[in-house]
């Protein structure tokens, strides 16, 4: 009576042992095979590098960051590879864009940056995306009519970007761009890029920042159609650039500053 | 002449051996020696420690057959063991987790001996050997981590070398002895390999031998009873009488409990190893990656936390003076408290010390896991600001948000829990600080924050404060800066920066 029972038990135990031995290779603790990290021109490689190095300023998905959105096919189509590479490698003078290549201790090598540019175009670019206007993306210092720029500003920009902010008002406007504090933090190229490509990702009020193609609003909030021309953009940039070093506002009252010090 | 059967032959051979070595006498002494009847489950931890040590020896020998202790190949050989050697990963997992288990069991064993006052007369040297075994075991765990030769090992060595460097006068020499040269190199790995597979295991085996011999010679201590203090003059006689009268043989009575506990511990170990797998190897070491946040294995996290939280002025003294003094005191305990009560109920200070130590180590370990004191070095490029803090902001405020990243404020300050934890979360900073207070805090620093007044231009400062003053916790709708009373940016004038073009470079 006991013997057959034991034989059955032995068989069951053996089966379980063999099965568990066979299953050993699928245990959860088994480390995954090591694979080489994807190169930056692939979607995964690009996304990884972007989220580690760019997302902080350019936004988690390439839009809605404080810096220029990069997920913008029109912008990507307008800026050539070598210019993009230069901005990535060396940063942009006069702005908060740091360089990621060159002689820095943590520098990314040039090949990787080139691959990254390619990866960005694959992920977010679109070769057939064309600018609504045919205005060159790059700022060229040269002759421009700042006075004409001021007139254009009054006619097309001032309703969203008033020069003097209505203190205490809750009027929905996008805020001053003639503020010298602001102008000192941005380059002429930044101004140009903002004017040419606009900024439609931040849900600003009352409307998104249009590209150079318009439409705009005049000082009374009426719609103004008609794209800016290339020289119009030059003139606007020249006007804003000229405001950078000439304070528009009266010196600060000392009341606000000394308030805290008397504590 | 009697008939020669196989059974008889074996018996004769064993007799021959016993006559010359005394092996059976030793075995009989150790297996059947009488132990106190009341020595129950409290006494299994030492055996469990030894079982894990045996596992370490066995798995360690097999691992050593595959491991290449050279700086160029160590990492690759670990990957090879993980991926190519059949069940190599399981071997590594067992070795790693068993190391933790051994340390844990050792500490529990030590705590039990301390709480029960078992170190008192006549077992002083058993305790001293135990203290050295404790150091050897921790040394094995630390050198074992180095064998992984990944970023954690590299930076761990760097920290160790920096501690050595602080020794007055001989710091450089000590570091050279530790690293096998001025820097972390192949020689360092060879050195730690020798420690890990020859010197420390050899010491451990010798110490365990002495420890066990002492246990056999002095006998296992009885369960402490209040009102039965240790009196050296009479203790031994009374102990022997009692164990002779009421004791039980070690095998099978006490050994059965040891075997049950060790068996259960072994099953748990195999389960953990199979489920969680081997530890590392982590990232390859790269001295140029300053963003690395090396963290030691769990066992040493409390030391890591303690080091991070020490006041900087006291560091050198505490690092160099406290460990030797603490170890010397630990070893001296049985000589200082040689006699008297053993029961925990009669020794409240000892109980309190154990409770305090466990709490402190537990809290420090928990802190070490999150290490909130360290800045998150890559947050400025990798941690985006949530969209609701950017929508409907003025151009200046957006520039401020950009400055917040660029000036690496984010590495120490989180917004909406995203970012470093070293400084306060700034999600609702505008509800706490006025414009002027924000300005002053950034310019002059304060608390643990450095002063940024010299590092930021007036424009950068204005933009930054303009952005910060919009952080009202997300409860209020964003409006114009001018709409908020405490925003005098509109009325301020940029200070004459020496060179506006240099705003961006510092």
Characterization of this structure:
The complex is a heterodimer of chains A (263) and B (506). Chain A has 263 residues and is an all-alpha fold. Among the domains of chain A are: 43-124, Cytochrome c-like domain (Cytochrome Bc1 Complex, Chain D, domain 2); 146-165 and 173-243, Orthogonal Bundle (Cytochrome Bc1 Complex, Chain D, domain 2). In chain A, 45% of the residues lie in helices and 2% in strands. Chain A has helices at residues 2-23, 43-53, 55-58, 73-78, 81-90, 110-124, 146-157, 180-185, 188-197, 230-243, 254-261; strands at residues 216-217, 223-224. In chain A, strands 1-2 form a two-stranded antiparallel sheet. In chain A, a hairpin with a 5-residue loop joins strand 1 and strand 2. In chain A, helix 2 (43-53) crosses helix 6 (110-124), helix 5 crosses helix 6 (110-124) and helix 7 (146-157) crosses helix 10. Chain A is elongated and about 110 Å long. The model of chain A is unreliable at 248-263 (pLDDT under 50). With 506 residues, chain B is an all-alpha fold. Helix content of chain B is 60%, strand content 1%. Chain B contains 19 helices and two strands. Chain B has helices at 6-21, 23-32, 45-64, 74-83, 88-115, 124-147, 151-165, 171-179, 186-218, 232-246, 250-276, 301-309, 315-336, 348-370, 379-382, 395-406, 429-432, 435-444, 458-468, and strands spanning 34-35, 248-249. A two-stranded antiparallel sheet of chain B has the order 1-2. In chain B, helix 7 packs antiparallel against helix 8. Mean pLDDT of chain B is 85; it is low at 477-493 and 495-506. The interface between A and B is large, with 66 and 75 residues.
């Amino acid at each position: 009576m006991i013997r057959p029972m034991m034989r059955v038990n032995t068989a069951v135990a053996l089966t379980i042992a063999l099965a568990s031995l066979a299953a050993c290779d699928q245990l959860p603790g088994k480390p995954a095979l090591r694979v080489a990290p994807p190169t930056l021109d692939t979607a995964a490689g690009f996304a990884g590098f972007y989220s580690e190095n760019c997302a902080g300023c350019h936004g988690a998905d390439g839009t809605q960051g404080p810096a220029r959105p990069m997920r913008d096919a029109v912008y990507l189509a307008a800026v050539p590879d070598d210019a993009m590479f230069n901005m990535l490698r060396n940063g942009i003078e006069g702005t908060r864009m740091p360089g990621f290549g060159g002689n820095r201790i943590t520098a990314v090598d040039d090949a990787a940056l080139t691959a990254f540019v390619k990866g960005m175009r694959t992920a977010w670019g679109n070769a057939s995306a064309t600018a609504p206007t045919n205005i060159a993306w790059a700022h060229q210092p040269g002759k421009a009519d700042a006075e004409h720029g001021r007139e254009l500003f009054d006619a097309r920009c001032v309703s969203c970007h008033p020069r003097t902010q209505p203190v205490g008002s809750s009027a929905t406007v996008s805020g001053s761009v003639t503020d010298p504090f602001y102008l000192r933090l941005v380059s002429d190229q930044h101004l140009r890029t903002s004017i040419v490509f606009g900024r439609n990702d931040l849900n600003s009020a009352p409307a998104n920042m249009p590209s150079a193609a318009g439409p705009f609003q005049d000082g009374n909030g009426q719609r103004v159609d008609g794209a800016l021309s290339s020289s119009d953009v030059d003139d606007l940039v020249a006007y804003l650039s000229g405001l950078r070093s000439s304070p528009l506002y009266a010196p600060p009252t000392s009341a606000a500053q000394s308030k805290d010090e008397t504590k | 002449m009697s008939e020669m059967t196989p059974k008889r032959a074996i018996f004769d051979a064993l007799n021959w051996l016993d006559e010359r070595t005394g092996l059976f006498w030793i075995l009989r002494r150790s297996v059947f020696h009488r132990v106190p009847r009341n020595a129950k489950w409290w006494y299994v931890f030492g055996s469990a420690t030894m079982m894990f040590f045996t596992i370490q020896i066995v798995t360690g020998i097999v691992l050593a057959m595959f491991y290449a202790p050279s700086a160029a190949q160590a990492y690759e050989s670990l990957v090879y063991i993980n991926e190519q050697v059949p069940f190599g990963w399981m071997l590594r997992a067992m070795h790693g987790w068993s190391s933790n288990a051994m340390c844990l069991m050792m500490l529990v064993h030590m705590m039990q001996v301390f709480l029960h006052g078992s170190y008192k007369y006549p077992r002083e040297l058993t305790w001293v050997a135990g203290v050295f075994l404790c150091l050897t075991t921790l040394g094995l765990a630390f050198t074992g981590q180095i064998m992984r030769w990944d970023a954690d090992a590299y930076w761990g060595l760097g920290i160790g070398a920096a501690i050595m460097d602080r020794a007055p006068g001989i710091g450089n020499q000590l570091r050279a002895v530790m690293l096998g040269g001025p820097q972390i190199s192949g020689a360092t790995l060879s050195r730690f390999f020798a420690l890990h597979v020859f010197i420390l295991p050899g010491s451990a085996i010798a110490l365990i031998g002495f420890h066990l011999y002492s246990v056999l010679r002095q006998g296992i201590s009885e369960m402490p009873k209040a009102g039965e203090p240790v009196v050296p003059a009479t203790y031994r006689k009374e102990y022997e009488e009692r164990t002779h009268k009421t004791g039980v043989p070690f095998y099978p009575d006490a050994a059965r409990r040891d075997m049950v506990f060790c068996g259960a511990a072994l099953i748990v170990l195999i389960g953990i190893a199979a489920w969680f797998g081997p530890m590392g190897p982590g990232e390859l070491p790269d001295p140029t990656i300053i963003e690395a946040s090396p963290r030691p294995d769990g066992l040493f996290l409390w030391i890591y936390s303690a080091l991070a939280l020490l006041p900087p002025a006291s560091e050198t003294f505490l690092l160099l003076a406290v460990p030797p003094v603490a170890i010397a005191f630990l070893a001296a305990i049985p000589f200082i408290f040689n006699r008297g009560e053993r029961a925990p109920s009669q020794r409240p200070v000892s109980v309190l010390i154990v409770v305090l130590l466990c709490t402190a180590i537990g809290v420090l370990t928990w802190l070490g896991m999150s290490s909130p004191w360290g800045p998150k070095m890559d947050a400025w490029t990798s941690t985006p600001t949530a969209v609701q803090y950017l929508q409907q902001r003025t151009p200046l405020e957006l520039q401020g948000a950009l400055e917040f990243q660029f000036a690496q404020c984010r590495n120490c300050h989180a917004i909406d829990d995203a970012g470093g934890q070293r400084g306060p979360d700034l999600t609702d900073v505008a509800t706490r600080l006025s414009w002027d207070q924000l300005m002053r805090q950034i310019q002059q620093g304060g608390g643990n924050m450095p002063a940024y007044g010299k590092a930021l231009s007036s424009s950068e400062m204005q933009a930054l404060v303009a952005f910060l003053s919009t952080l009202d916790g997300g409860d209020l709708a964003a409006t114009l800066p001018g709409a908020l009373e405490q925003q005098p940016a509109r009325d301020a004038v940029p200070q004459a920066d020496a060179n506006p073009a240099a705003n961006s470079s510092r």
